[in-house]
Amino acid sequence: MSAAEGPLVVGVDSSTQSTKALVVDASTGQVVASGQAPHTVSTGASRESDPRQWWDALCEALDQCGEAAREAAAVSIGGQQHGLVTLDAHGDPVRPALLWNDVQSAPQARRLVEELGGPKAWADRTGSVPGASFTVTKWAWLAENEPEAVRATAAVRLPHDYLTERLTGQGTTDRGDASGTGWWASATESYDEEILAHVGLDPALLPRVVRPGEVAGTVRDAHDLPFSKGTLVAPGTGDNAAAALGLGLRPGTPVLSLGTSGTVYAVSKRRPTDPTGTVAGFADAHGDWLPLACTLNCTLAVDRIAALLGRDREAVEPGTAVTLLPFLDGERTPNLPHATGLLHGLRHDTTPGQLLQAAYDGAVHSLLGALDLVLDEDADRTVPLLLIGGGARGRAWQETVRRLSGRPVQVPEAKELVALGAAAQAAGLLTGEDPAAVARRWDTARGPVLEAVQRDEAALTRIAGVLSDAAPLLEREPDRH
């Protein structure tokens, strides 16, 4: 047995590029074992992954955890949001999953918004105006482009649902992840039959929405994992909702997550309905709401610029008047699915380090622009901005966020917050606690606070001006010929 004070739980983060598993002491929050295994994502016009890779990676990650994983009393899966997983009658993938950052469905997104009442009607109904990231648009794209795949589909799942179902044998999801589909109505907290009928999706193909705190099932006999039969399985949730649990967020505390995508969000007691579509009105995993803005281009895009320049990602230099919009994968905030990277203001004396700093500035600008829309009007603007994700410990990221936000920045010491949030959800099944309260008991948000500096208004104004002036270029659909 492991030297733990209380029962052990497992929290999983099945992200875009890898699956991470943590075995956590439910009493103290101590991570007693961990593992990680990679996934592959297609390149080119689409962003797809074979869901079976996620399962194989989960098996590998848990195998790395050793004996501790066998002692777990409960498990929960946090997963990348929005992905469309189509399964046949045997539970096998019909085709690779279309991931959140696949933007092929941008035309379907525009059409769906127009056909069902416009942006305000969608926001009032589902909490969000669907863009190309949302699952409903991916299903519409699939129906138009691969009708044979639609005919072969016997179940539609999200990434975290797929893994949970392989554990339990039951098709379930949670309100947090369901709220990113575009077919779950936040106003009624149920599947929207009119939207489903409009896109030709039978509600019988969808998973049951498990309530916060409810047991999704138990681990079944037939599996390749080290869990005992009967181990409790929590509802799981999407990655951002899991990270919010992992931080033990209270309403009004803003989070900026720097990963493959960039996100800014906060817990709110009020159901969000932003008709501009900038803020997605997601549900969180314990009964409140998680208004969120997301960009497609964050750490990977900036790292790509650094690689093109032949520089280390921290090798930035100040004093630049150059603007670089690193929209290498299209963009979601602002909604520019066909955009490419754009460089403006290049001079003879511009240095590679200044170009790299401009890439950081461009990536952070869009996120901070959405911050005021994410926060409730009465939120305290002096509360430190929690900086999380893979880029959060990077000095260049920290200083860019400080300079462009003008806010104090806190960097939690805890790593793998999505997996920790999933672990807190699993622990809540055993203790009866709110998972966010579990995370606060574990003190997961503890970390140094970087004092506020004066906001760089000149840089913000310059970037906004270039973005506005370049709109016709950024909105132009690419010539495929």
From TrEMBL:
Cleavable signal peptide: none
Domain Carbohydrate kinase FGGY C-terminal: 312-427
Catalytic EC class: transferase
Residue ranges of the TM segments: none
UniProt-annotated site: Important for activity, residues: D13
Location of the active site: D239 (proton acceptor)
EC numbers: 2.7.1.17
Domain Carbohydrate kinase FGGY N-terminal: start-end pairs: 9-246
Entry binding sites for substrate: Q81, H82
Alphabetically ordered keywords of this record: ATP-binding, Carbohydrate metabolism, Kinase, Nucleotide-binding, Transferase, Xylose metabolism
Catalytic activity: D-xylulose + ATP = D-xylulose 5-phosphate + ADP + H(+)
Tree of life domain: Bacteria
Functional note: Catalyzes the phosphorylation of D-xylulose to D-xylulose 5-phosphate.
PANTHER family, per database record: SUGAR KINASE, XYLULOSE KINASE
Family: Belongs to the FGGY kinase family.
Name the UniProt record assigns to this protein: Xylulose kinase
Species this protein is from: Streptomyces lannensis
Gene this chain is encoded by: xylB
